[in-house]
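User: Let's play a game. I give you a shape written as tokens, and you guess the letters that built it. Ready? Here's round one.
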């Protein structure tokens, strides 16, 4: 099923405004949108009440600018608590299909991203998460997919097909070639060929399912690259307006509560919006 219910987390900053604008752009005709603002705990009661009233009034005014035919499908809620916990809890309670957040910072250092509300939502959310970095000027047209064959990558790709049905998709199964000795070259070549074949079959199958499910007319190209995955993807981000990836390694023993190193750096360094998914 395509995502039909979006939850947008807003701190009422301009970064969050980009996320809300993109959510309105992507919202299906029969879709629903929940806009969530979280007032932090620990404030004096009078100040907390004032912030709640102000936030509610602001959101009602802002959402009143949405197209009139969408009004009944949009609601705003203001809760008190920790931002990360509230976003996760509301996404579950309201059965949201997609969580949309703004870019948390303009600082391009991955270690500063770690521990932010956005990073923790991406790490722990069991729903796909779209991080919006730019003011939307048009529908997504150029989708770059960092594909490693993991369940998270497949899930993110499926959502991307649903959100951008007429876009151009460039799917890059970039992965490190194995470290080998001269005597193992032939075996390594066969391993690389087998892995490339497996990944290509997964991509073709996912694209076929998208066509059957969503009637997409997306144009798909597959670039098989055997090189440093970060460099390969980072160099192509300038072409894309959306980067799509899973957040965890395809390895069976990979932690399910950490954002992989490659994904963490791309979340910070990519020049475009980013759609992620856990397995």
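Assistant: Ready! My guess for every position:
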């Amino acid at each position: 099923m395509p995502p039909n219910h979006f939850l947008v987390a807003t701190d009422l900053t301009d970064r969050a405004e980009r996320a809300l604008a993109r959510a309105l752009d992507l919202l299906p005709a029969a879709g629903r949108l929940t806009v969530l603002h979280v007032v932090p705990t620990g404030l004096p009661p009078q100040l907390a009440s004032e912030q709640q009233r102000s936030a509610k009034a602001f959101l009602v005014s802002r959402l009143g600018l949405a197209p009139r035919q969408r009004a009944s499908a949009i609601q705003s809620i203001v809760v008190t608590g920790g931002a990360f916990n509230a976003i996760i809890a509301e996404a579950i309670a309201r059965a949201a299909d997609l969580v949309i957040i703004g870019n948390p910072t303009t600082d391009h250092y991955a270690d500063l991203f770690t521990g932010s509300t956005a990073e923790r939502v991406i790490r722990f959310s069991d729903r796909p998460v779209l991080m919006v970095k730019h003011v939307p000027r048009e529908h997504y047209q150029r989708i770059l997919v960092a594909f490693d064959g993991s369940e998270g990558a497949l899930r993110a790709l499926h959502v991307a097909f649903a959100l951008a049905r007429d876009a151009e998709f460039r799917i890059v199964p970039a992965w490190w070639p194995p470290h080998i000795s001269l005597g193992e070259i032939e075996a390594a070549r066969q391993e690389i060929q087998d892995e490339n074949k497996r990944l290509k079959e997964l991509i073709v199958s996912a694209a076929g399912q998208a066509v059957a499910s969503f009637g997409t007319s997306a144009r798909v190209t597959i670039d098989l690259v055997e090189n440093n995955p970060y460099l390969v993807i980072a160099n192509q981000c300038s072409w894309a307006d959306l980067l799509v990836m899973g957040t965890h390694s395809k390895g069976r023993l990979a932690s399910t509560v950490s954002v992989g190193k490659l994904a963490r750096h791309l979340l910070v360094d990519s020049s475009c919006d980013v759609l992620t998914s856990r397995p």
